[in-house]
Amino acid sequence: MARIEVLPEGREIEAQADETILQALLRHGILQAHICGGKGRCSTCRLLILAGLEYCSPRPPREQRLAERLHFTADIRLACQTYITGPVRLRRLIIDDEDLECTDLTILTDQTAIVGTEKGIFILFADIEGFTSFAEALLPYDIVHVLNRYFNRMGRVIRHHHGYINAYMGDGLMALFEAEDPAQGAARAVQAGLAMLSETVRLQPYLQELFHRSFQIRIGLHYGKVVTGAFGPAETRRETVIGDAVNVASRIEAANKLAGTRFLISETVYQFIQDKIQVGKRLEVNLPGKSQVHTLFEVLGFDHDRGDGAAAAGLCRDFTAKE
């Protein structure tokens, strides 16, 4: 019998010589995902071996092929293919349904753009505050996994409010919102931003349990004319937007850092929605690379809320109070 310390549960179990780690986990009532039935045909039972890798059996050919395809490091093992001969400390990497969804999630958009089309659009930038310090003590796999979980949640929120993620920039994202009625588009985008703040709060227990740390996000929102089209070489071409409005939206997001705020919108957005939002600070700022002074508004909540905005409004006020 070999001892296994299982994280994040903090449990200690024993594995028999003739059973895999997966079999030992299931025998002790730990519900480890294994979509393929433990045949080494998927990666949903993968584990991170924190100590005792020398006591793990070598990868069989099936696991080796999968590991090479997915670029697993030596300490990422499939529970269904691994036997142990001594004490092992491990972390389960797929611990709930959302992790399972993130495992093979491909974020797609059904938005289509005609090359060279100019249109007015709401542009939302979101960035994780202090992600470098958050991630400095994490393993590379953990960093990727946390970001995928975060992006998965943000994607659901944004799609719920009729927007779509157009680009990822490290730990940041750009989302776009379109509507024939700009007032409606502004409402959707602002409510999405508030809901994103709320969803980040809901993510905190997961981050604390697994990594003993957490993070918050900052959001900037602007409305302006952009050019939509498919850009890049044919084999890697993708649809995106370009224009000065994109740069302004990005700089509004960055302005949160100096202002001590979480969610800032431009005056253009404010004009569409001023009678429906609760605002805090009003800022007159010089955005980098821009000659004129820009007026920005801190969004605290949404009046006459529909859906996620109501819960997010109070949470956003709490964020501000903690600054």
Concise description?
This protein is an alpha+beta fold and 323 residues long. Helices cover 36% and strands 29% of the residues. Strand 7 (163-169) and strand 8 form a beta hairpin.
Features:
elongated; 29% strand; alpha+beta; Ubiquitin-like (UB roll); Alpha-Beta Plaits; 323 residues; 2 domains; eight-stranded mixed sheet; disordered C terminus
Describe this structure as you would to a colleague.
With 323 residues, the protein is of the alpha+beta class. The protein has two domains: 2-102, Roll (Ubiquitin-like (UB roll)); 107-322, Nucleotide cyclase, GGDEF domain (Alpha-Beta Plaits). Helices cover 36% and strands 29% of the residues. The protein has nine helices and 13 strands. It has helices at 21-27, 61-70, 97-103, 131-135, 140-160, 182-211, 244-259, 267-273, 309-322, and strands spanning 2-7, 11-15, 46-51, 76-78, 88-92, 117-128, 163-169, 172-177, 217-231, 238-242, 263-266, 277-286, 293-302. Helix 6 (182-211) crosses helix 8 and helix 6 (182-211) packs across helix 9 (309-322). It is elongated. It starts with a strand and ends with a helix.
Write the SSE topology:
Blueprint: E1 2-7, E2 11-15, H1 21-27, E3 46-51, H2 61-70, E4 76-78, E5 88-92, H3 97-103, E6 117-128, H4 131-135, H5 140-160, E7 163-169, E8 172-177, H6 182-211, E9 217-231, E10 238-242, H7 244-259, E11 263-266, H8 267-273, E12 277-286, E13 293-302, H9 309-322
Parallel strand pairs: 1-5, 9-11
Antiparallel strand pairs: 1-2, 3-4, 3-5, 6-8, 6-9, 7-8, 9-10, 11-13, 12-13
Helix pairs in contact: 3-5, 5-6, 6-8, 6-9
